């Protein structure tokens, strides 16, 4: 007769999730309101329950093992589900009100956020939402925003940062541009084409150089620090631009260049202050954004 496997203790799963997301036992203990020895015992208990090692210590840091990485996505989904159940049980979703400020890049704010904002409005109709569409890093520590969507992980210990997605980007150009200039054969050949500047030419050149794309100022003849404007310049046939496929797929007249090459993968971090644990409106918005972004991998 077969027997069902023993179900892991939720407290042990929660300890693992906090440790994986914060990157240290001490930070995870602070987040959960536990002592570090208690949290360490809970993580060890989960490893024993599952029969696998989830972390390995490298120097003074903790790194997820292969099994730990596989576990992380599943436990994040469990954590989101538990939070949503708590909200429903307490009848909070319809009672949440006040203003919340979300900061993200102008392209993300214009093309992707509206989809999840519809769900937010339905879940919390009394909530006021202000979108801070900027390409620089807003300072959550000074409360310039409540939640940030970033492509770099912040270092401040008072911030909660969760890696929620790693979307793919490719190079795109309009059919009209390619009819005039031809198609690039490989990454190196892209150096012979015009690119749209998204503001910082030097940063773009430095980012693309490791891919074998050696660009100079001559490659950037037109552009804008406003991402929406820069992307529209690509759509109108002024040159090549890199863009998330979730955005570019909306434009049937654009051509994905070198589709067989490895995509550009950029991490997406969801960041907020530790007030997340005491503010109902921040908790709801954070969790719904996390679910939405996870679907956009």
Commentary on this structure:
It is a single chain. This protein is α/β, with parallel strands linked by helices and 297 residues long. The protein has 3 domains: 10-87, Orthogonal Bundle (Arc Repressor Mutant, subunit A), CATH 1.10.10; 90-167 and 267-295, D-Maltodextrin-Binding Protein, domain 2; 168-265, D-Maltodextrin-Binding Protein, domain 2, CATH 3.40.190. Helices cover 41% and strands 20% of the residues. The protein has a 5-stranded mixed β-sheet with strand order 4-3-5-13-6. The longest helix is centred in the N-terminal third of the chain and has 24 residues, at 66-89. The two termini are 41 Å apart. The model is unreliable at 90-94 (pLDDT under 50). Belongs to the LysR transcriptional regulatory family. Pfam families: HTH_1, LysR_substrate. Keywords: DNA-binding, Transcription, Transcription regulation. Residues 8-65 form the HTH lysR-type domain.
CATH level-1 class of the largest domain: Alpha Beta
| CATH architecture title of the largest domain | 3-Layer(aba) Sandwich
In DSSP terms (H or I, runs of 4 or more residues), the helix count works out at 11
Judging from the principal axes of the Cα atoms, what is the shape?
Answer: globular
**Which class do the helix and strand fractions yield?**
alpha/beta
End-to-end CA span: 41 Å
Q: Provide the spatial order of strands within the biggest beta sheet.
A: 4-3-5-13-6
Give a short account of the largest sheet. Answer: 5 strands, mixed
Order of helix and strand elements from N to C terminus: HHHEEHEHHEEEEHEHEHEHEEEH
Beta-strand percentage?
15-25%
List low-pLDDT spans. Answer: 90-94
What's the alpha carbon Rg, rounded to whole Å?
22 Å
The overall average pLDDT, rounded, is 85
In CATH, what is the homologous superfamily of the largest domain? Answer: Periplasmic binding protein-like II
Provide the domain count: 3
Number of strands: 13
Q: Determine the CATH topology of the largest domain.
A: D-Maltodextrin-Binding Protein, domain 2
How much helix is in the residues? 40-55%
């Amino acid at each position: 007769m077969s027997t069902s496997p023993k179900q892991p203790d939720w407290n042990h799963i929660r300890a693992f999730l906090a440790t994986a997301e914060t990157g240290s036992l001490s930070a995870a203990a602070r987040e959960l309101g536990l002592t570090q020895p208690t949290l360490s015992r809970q993580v060890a208990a989960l490893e024993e329950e599952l029969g696998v090692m989830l972390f390995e210590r490298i120097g003074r840091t903790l790194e997820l093992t292969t099994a730990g990485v596989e576990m992380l996505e599943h436990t994040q989904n469990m954590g989101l589900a538990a939070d949503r159940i708590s909200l429903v049980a307490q009848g909070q979703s319809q009672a949440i009100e006040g203003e919340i400020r979300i900061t993200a890049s102008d392209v993300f704010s214009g093309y992707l956020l509206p989809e999840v904002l519809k769900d937010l409005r339905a879940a919390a109709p009394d909530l006021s939402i202000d979108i801070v569409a900027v390409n620089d890093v807003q300072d959550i520590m000074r409360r310039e925003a409540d939640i940030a969507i970033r492509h770099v992980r912040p270092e401040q210990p008072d911030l909660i940062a969760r890696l929620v997605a790693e979307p793919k980007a490719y190079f795109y150009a309009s059919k009209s541009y390619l009819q005039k200039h031809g198609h690039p054969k490989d990454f190196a050949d892209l150096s012979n084409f015009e690119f749209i500047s998204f503001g910082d030419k030097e940063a773009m050149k430095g980012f693309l150089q490791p891919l074998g794309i050696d660009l100079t100022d001559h490659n950037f003849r037109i552009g804008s620090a406003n991402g929406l404007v820069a992307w529209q310049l690509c759509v109108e046939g002024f040159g090549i631009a890199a863009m998330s496929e979730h955005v570019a797929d909306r434009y049937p007249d654009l051509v994905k260049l070198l589709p067989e090459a490895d995509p550009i993968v950029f991490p997406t971090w969801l960041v907020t202050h530790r007030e997340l644990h005491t503010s109902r409106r921040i908790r709801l918005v954070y969790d719904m954004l996390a679910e939405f972004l996870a679907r956009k991998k």
